[in-house]
Write a structure and sequence with these properties.
mainly beta, 6-stranded mixed β-sheet, Immunoglobulin-like, about 0% helix, about 525 residues, 40 strands, about 50% strand
């Protein structure tokens, strides 16, 4: 439960120095970064304060006397304190605490004064985030006043609408001995279990070809806690070659809502040292292992607890002339009539722009699959979702420009039509994105789209909503989760109740998980 601390509820007090002569001008600015506050972290960055001293003055430098702090603070915040130094995104690590702090009767006292240097003096208010925090809690710590030896200073709030959200660091750099975790994809099973699959990049950040396995995290409590890592695809030293020449990654996931079977598809690259599957001969025409990348699948029939041995689907799916055929690293879905739909991608020739995106479908529970025609050329990673009239929208990372490609099919991919928003509405920095369709009132569908909302870099991870089948994406139906720069890839899934879950490659962890109420996407919350 969130308590609201009024301006005078918490005052960080410092010793008041003797009178000064001709004190310089002092101004102050506070800013809350729009970044997730991660469960269990000891120094979550709540608010940045810059106290600027302008002019030299004739006497002693001014001294900071107190800060009045208020706002919306969950009870799970622990050890709220002041540290000195840091940049726009957070305090310097390790943080430099303001010495001598002690809390008595709702006030933070410091032993001795704190002299301010000429120019910018940067402070952060930080806190430990308790394990008992609610994932739906919002934090908005405000600095409502600054007192200095030069007099009281009004504080300009540079982020009046920012309410920080709680997140879970699902995967961190170096966790479980894995150098980097990448390419997360999220799905919910019929029981409500959440499954997140991803690349386990053991030796560094490089893509295939490298020592990469597919890992999985499983949660049965809506994403609050996650079971230990499962490695569900590891090609080992197949063909007598080392792990670094048997990488398998870029997973896609599909839950059969009828049977409960869960599919994870991935791409296996064998014997291509120093190559990249999307460039030149990193994958070639044909079906032969070691020449072309292989389309692999595993499945689970017990809600993601255990998984089958890998099955190679390359010859049954890939055209021999294509240079590459791969699952899109996103989630598929089950239509109301039971048809399984999975987004896929590939290269039909050897050029940089000879890429395509489409879907594959199954009407026999995955025993056989049918490929659609190319829905978009010059693009690759994609997500498919159902529209209100039953047609399917394909949303594609474009190699052509800094907008998403969008196409629609009414016949399971046999034919496609370009959508009016294609190549002109949804901005992107050339990165994966996620599209999710949810039932809404009157038999219509609600579309959610997530991606790094920038055309320059993978920053400003956001979720947007459309209630007109993607014709418009109103600005007041967008929320910002993480303004910082990360690797960017997001994936959305429905969570129990009127909530949506998201995993993404954030600025503060390899993979972050967050929960957002759908009401926050109704134009009512920043």
């Amino acid at each position: 439960m969130i308590r609201r601390a009024l301006a005078a509820a918490l005052v960080l007090s410092l010793a008041i120095p003797a009178a000064v002569q001709a004190a310089p001008r002092v101004v102050a600015t506070a800013r809350r970064p729009a970044v997730p506050l991660l469960v269990g972290e000891p120094e979550a960055p709540l608010c940045r304060l810059v106290v600027r001293v302008e002019g030299d003055g004739d006497g002693e430098p001014p001294r900071l006397e107190s800060l009045a702090v208020g706002g919306a603070l969950p009870q799970a915040l622990r050890d709220i304190r002041l540290v000195r130094g840091g940049g726009e995104a957070g305090p310097t690590a390790p943080a430099e605490p303001v010495a001598g702090a002690r809390i008595e009767a709702g006030r933070m006292h410091l032993d001795g004064g704190l002299a301010l240097d000429p120019g910018d003096n940067v402070f952060w208010v930080v806190a430990a985030i308790g394990d008992d925090v609610d994932l739906l809690d919002r934090v908005a710590l405000t600095i409502d006043g600054v007192a200095t030896s030069a007099g009281p200073v009004a504080v300009e709030d540079a982020s009046p609408v920012v309410r920080q959200r709680i997140g879970v660091a699902l995967r961190r750099h170096g966790q479980d001995g894995v150098h980097t975790t990448r390419i997360p994809v999220l799905a919910a099973t019929p029981t409500g279990t959440l499954l997140a699959a991803y690349d386990l990049r053991h030796r560094g950040t490089r893509d295939l070809q490298e020592d990469i396995d597919v890992g999985l995290s499983r949660s049965t409590d809506g994403g609050r806690t996650w079971e230990p890592l499962r490695t569900i695809i590891d090609m080992g030293e197949a063909g007598g070659l080392p792990q670094a020449q048997n990488g398998c990654g870029d997973p896609g996931i599909l839950v059969d809502d009828v049977t409960g079977r869960i599919w994870v598809f991935a791409l296996w690259v064998h014997g291509k040292p120093g190559k990249h599957q999307w460039n030149d001969d990193g994958s070639e025409p044909g079906w032969e292992i070691g020449k072309t990348a292989q389309f692999m699948a595993v499945h689970s029939d017990d809600d993601g607890r255990t998984w089958s041995a890998p099955e190679n689907l390359t010859r049954s799916l890939k055209e021999e002339a294509w240079w590459l055929f791969a699952p899109a690293p996103q989630a598929g879905f089950t239509r109301a009539d039971g048809t399984l739909v999975m987004p896929v991608q590939g290269r039909f020739a050897g050029g940089r722009l000879d890429s395509f995106a489409t879907i594959m479908t199954s009407s026999d529970r995955g025993a056989t699959w049918r490929l659609g025609a190319f829905g978009y050329r010059g693009g690759n990673e994609c997500q498919a979702a159902e529209l209100s009239d039953g047609s399917i929208m394909l949303n594609v990372r474009s190699d052509l420009q800094r907008y998403r490609g969008v196409a629609v099919t009414a016949d399971l991919g046999s034919t496609w039509a370009s959508h009016p928003t294609s190549d002109r509405v949804l901005e992107e920095p050339n990165c994966n994105g996620s599209l999710l369709s949810l039932p809404a009132a009157g038999g219509r569908r609600l579309l959610l789209f997530a991606n790094p909302l920038s055309q320059k870099e993978r920053s400003h991870q956001s979720i947007r909503a459309s209630d007109d089948d993607g014709a418009t994406w109103p600005e007041d139906r967008r929320i910002l989760l993480d303004e910082g720069r990360g690797r960017g890839y997001p994936s959305l899934a429905r969570v129990a109740g009127d909530r949506v879950g998201i995993v993404y490659e954030g600025s503060r962890a390899d993979v972050v998980f967050q929960v957002v109420p759908l009401a926050d996407l109704a134009g009512e919350a920043p």
